[in-house]
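Hey team,

Filing this mostly as a record. A colleague (T.K.) asked me to run one chain through the structure pipeline before their review meeting, and I want the input and output archived in the tracker in case anyone asks later how it was produced. No errors, nothing strange. Just documentation.

Input sequence:
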Amino acid sequence: MNERHVWLLGALALMLFPLAAAGQLLPGSVDETYELPLAAPTGLAWDGTFFWAADRFTATIARIHPESGRVVERLEAPGHEPMGLAWDGERLWCVDAADKTAYALLPNEGLTVKALELETPSPQGIGWDGEGLWISDGRAGELIRIDGQDGTTVRTLSLPTARMKGRSEVIGIAFSEGRIWLSERAHDTIFAVDRESGEVLDYFDAPGPYPAGLAWDGDHLWCLDYERRALDKVNVLCGGAYTIDGAKKEHVVYQERWRNYGPGTVKTLDIYLAVPGDLPNQKILDPPRFEPHPTEFLLDPWGQNVAHFRFEDVGPGEEAGAVMEVDAEIRRVRWRIEPDLAGTLDEIPPEIAAQFLADETKLALDSQVIRKAVREAVGDERNAYRVALDIYRYIQDRMHYELSGGWNVAPTVLERGSGSCSEYTFVMIAMCRAAGLPARYQGSVVIRGDDASRDDVFHRWVEVFLPNYGWIPVDPSGGDSDTPWVRARYFGELNSRFLITTVGGGASPYLGWNYNSDASWTAEGRVELKTFRHGDWSPVDKTYEPGLEDAFVGGRGGTGIGP
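Output structure:
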């Protein structure tokens, strides 16, 4: 069974169980391991019959039997410090770090038949994609396609961890259908990278503490570990739509308070709190608790639950407010998406299209700015995943983050080239909907640093609908980075920092374009009002005790009927 067949079976599982958390198979798990009698194993290659492994300490290359892990032959390496290995169908290629040269060998004859001096300053790995050679250079942060005749550079991609703190170390390079597999030593991570764009499609922890060489045998990925001196057969597929880890239990207290500095009276104050529910990244452990009791519970057109509080006659010097306490398990979630199986725009369900392709005031879908941007970003692409990714990168190439106050409409933000997280969100929703891809937003309270912290800034991002996966989070402002791995961590992933309170597709009669909470009021006479909104986090085993700054005096009213 080849990789494509396995992915098709996985896609069927996704259709049947679209919310299967942490499937039977986890990427990075080991199916088989061989201990190797090598002192310092580095590069790995598969010639269709045997594995080849480089030993940096002894400057040798070992032929390894695939069914036993036994070394059946050793060759002297052509250079002093062998690193990456690759098989091109006829020859075994070896990158030598000391010589900065790629050597081609005929291993059965024991002959070196070619030596390419490399232009890159710190070569580490080498791979063969079926047509040409690729070299990795961790110091430069580049993956380089070279001419196999003279070693000149043909094409360059950024390594997944390029421009992150510290040097990348990529020795392992392997190729399967549509993917480049890279082993990154500094972060002990294996990456799946798109061959054309260089974007990170997936990543997972390596099976050992020092991943070095990689090889694809036609069906499976194998990883050579330098520290353990072992060869691991690594599972790269996931049996469910997403994986979950890093769960922690948190107590969140969210409140919105209003103070009337007078001299008039606030006759009515209506506060609306978005009520969070269970989602892949979070499980609500107990029903949320409110103070005071809500006047009523409401459901907006986007399916968002809202607690409504009515206060009356809030006089000068008085405060009124609403508090919501939530105990939740917060998780890190990563969707495992195979682009070719994500579905097309033609497969969008009609009921989803009707609601989440509609225009809204902040979107202005008919704007020439939005229409032009969609043509430039998407062109004729119909694959839903690639449409979303193209728009994600288009926005990041043309915008930078700037928190400057109001929320402008999407065309204005895109033309200006800067915006807050909400404004990035408006632009991406507008472009996705104009392209025919359903999109909406999520709003949250965020852990700021420690698990015990306060958030008064909050955060919003996009969800896009992929036919065979459902709603997928995409954060265009959080992922606005030159580093491919950072971009990947904000496309189809949520870390364990968010309590999502709000899911919406546009203006709500209760929350407006806000998230977490909103309010409206009427007054008799002139009034000066100030509002306070914040969320306090603490581990669930600690009791939240409001301080003096959290106390408030409620106006008359505020209680009412239950849900």
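Quick notes for T.K.: Confidence is low (pLDDT under 50) at residues 1-23, 543-563. DSSP finds seven helices and 36 strands in the chain.
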